């Protein structure tokens, strides 16, 4: 991750529409299907499983047809091709599956398996590679043709359709609504439109509300999909709309995605009757990624607590000797989803009262801070008790820094993108902090950096932030 990756389009402070729902001249709502909730879940599980089995069978059949004498070659080929295809996103459920889109990635991976088998079998030639690649690719594409046809037939049944909200009220959104109505194979039934600005006369469905109403609209209308039509939304607002969709319990499809706003992996791009679209996902939205991050936090924080026990004891003793009883300082902070928790720190001064603790900004040269407190602040050792917050699950090692409820309310009024920081667990350190944005610094820039971290999260970025934090602590002059 690089700070330079931020652009003008990444503007979490962009204003959201807060228009009331309208109904007047809009067309009547379409007849909603009598859906079975389990239908989409069955498709999401059965379709990838069938494709994986077909690919494994195709690879093993291609290897077996050569009658090679390499123990386990067929099994290895099956495992490798399924692993490569899964990593490349070839088993995801798409709105518009296409054999032409599958041809190149399937052939490349089949040839890679051919190279692997040829390396295992003495005396193999390029014929082995080509034969395995062509046969495995042909069988796999044949199986996919059957699977794609079955999916289209399945989706054309209105009892299996998913309900969709269309964000945008211009001509492009009206075209999307028309496509969804006449092309049943997409498996989406539009139930209403959401405006990101003044309502447009081109709206083909009732305008149910503004973008700030999306969470309630998804819940009230049982929407499974939110389709964001980029052409009908300003670049500044588009990023804010997509970030709101982060917390929605449904998928988000971006129609005509501009690459400079939200990066979309090539494997997630597809077409709806010629219109480019992509499923928008943030890594930390996936349950597996959240679980992996939590396990990493728990293991590392526990090890650090044990390893830093002598340092923690020394800090506690120094605080006790300088300021008397009350080694730990407890303060309410806002964490994941806006929930409050009690944050722990070593006490570096005693506030006059609880109101001062909750509402007064930290002052670096406060004359009530003694030598020990000053050292703990400058070395950041006063933050070490937060390792226990990480173990408890209140915080993560890396994430947006938590703030007091009073300031969260204040900053949220002046910087609309500020609350979006609470999409993920707060952290002991973060992308904004390693770039010098801590304490009395620009709230807007801190929010932009924190949201950029969330949108582009990876384990590599977490490790980099931890290393930069460790370097800053070790190289800082504590004097």
Automatic annotation (TrEMBL):
Keyword Transmembrane helix assigned to the entry: answer is: yes
- Membrane-related topology note: Multi-pass membrane protein
| Compartments it resides in | Membrane
Q: Which domain of life is it from?
A: Bacteria
GO terms (molecular function) for this protein are: phosphotransferase activity, for other substituted phosphate groups
Main location (coarse class): membrane
Per the UniProt record, which residue ranges are transmembrane? 46-66, 72-94, 106-123, 129-151, 298-321
**Domain Bacterial sugar transferase, which positions?**
293-474
Region annotation Disordered: where it falls in the sequence: 1-22
Keywords of the record, alphabetical order, are: Membrane, Transferase, Transmembrane, Transmembrane helix
Gene Ontology cellular component list: membrane
Q: Which family does it belong to?
A: Belongs to the bacterial sugar transferase family.
Protein name, entry field: Exopolysaccharide biosynthesis polyprenyl glycosylphosphotransferase
Q: Provide the species name.
A: Actinomadura litoris
Task: Give the classification, highest ranks.
Answer: Bacteria, Bacillati, Actinomycetota, Actinomycetes, Streptosporangiales
């Amino acid at each position: 991750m690089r700070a330079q990756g931020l652009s003008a389009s990444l503007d979490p402070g962009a204003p959201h529409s807060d228009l009331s729902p309208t109904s007047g001249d809009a067309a009547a709502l379409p007849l909603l299907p009598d859906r079975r909730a389990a239908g989409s879940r069955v498709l999401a599980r059965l379709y990838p499983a069938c494709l994986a089995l077909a690919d494994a069978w195709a690879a093993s059949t291609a290897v077996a047809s050569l009658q090679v004498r390499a123990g386990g070659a067929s099994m290895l080929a099956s495992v490798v091709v399924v692993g490569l295809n899964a990593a490349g996103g070839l088993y995801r459920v798409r709105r518009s599956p296409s054999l032409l889109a599958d041809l190149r990635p399937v052939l490349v991976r089949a040839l890679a398996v051919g190279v692997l088998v040829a390396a295992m079998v003495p005396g193999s030639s390029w014929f082995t590679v080509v034969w395995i690649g062509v046969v495995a690719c042909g069988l796999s594409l044949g199986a996919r043709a059957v699977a794609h046809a079955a999916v289209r037939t399945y989706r054309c049944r209105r009892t299996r359709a998913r309900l969709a909200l269309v964000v945008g009220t211009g001509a492009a959104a009206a075209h999307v609504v028309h496509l969804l109505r006449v092309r049943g194979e997409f498996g989406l039934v539009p139930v209403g439109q959401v405006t990101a600005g003044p309502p447009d006369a081109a709206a083909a469905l009732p305008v149910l509300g503004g973008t700030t109403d999306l969470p309630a609209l998804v819940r009230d209308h049982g929407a499974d999909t939110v389709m964001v039509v980029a052409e009908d939304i300003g670049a500044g607002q588009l990023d804010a709309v997509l970030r709101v969709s982060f917390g929605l319990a449904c998928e988000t499809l971006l129609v005509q995605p501009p690459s400079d706003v939200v990066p979309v992996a090539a494997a997630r791009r597809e077409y709806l009757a010629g219109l480019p679209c992509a499923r928008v996902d943030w890594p930390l939205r996936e349950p597996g990624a959240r679980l992996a991050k939590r396990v990493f936090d728990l293991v590392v924080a526990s090890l650090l607590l044990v390893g830093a026990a002598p340092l923690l004891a020394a800090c506690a003793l120094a605080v006790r000797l300088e300021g008397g009883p009350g080694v730990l300082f407890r303060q309410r902070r806002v964490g994941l989803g806006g929930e409050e928790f009690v944050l722990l720190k070593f006490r570096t001064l005693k506030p006059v009262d609880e109101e001062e603790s909750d509402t007064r900004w930290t002052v670096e040269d406060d004359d009530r801070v003694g030598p020990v407190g000053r050292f703990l602040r400058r070395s950041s050792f006063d933050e070490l008790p937060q390792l226990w917050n990480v173990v408890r699950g209140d915080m993560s090692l890396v994430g947006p820094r938590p703030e007091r409820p009073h300031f969260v309310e204040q900053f949220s009024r002046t910087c609309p993108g500020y609350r979006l920081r609470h999409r993920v667990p707060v952290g002991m350190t973060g992308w904004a902090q390693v770039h010098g944005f801590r304490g009395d610094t620009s709230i807007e820039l801190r929010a932009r950096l924190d949201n950029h971290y969330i949108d582009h999260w990876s384990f590599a970025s977490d490790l980099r932030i931890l290393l930069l934090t460790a370097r800053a602590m070790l190289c800082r002059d504590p004097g």
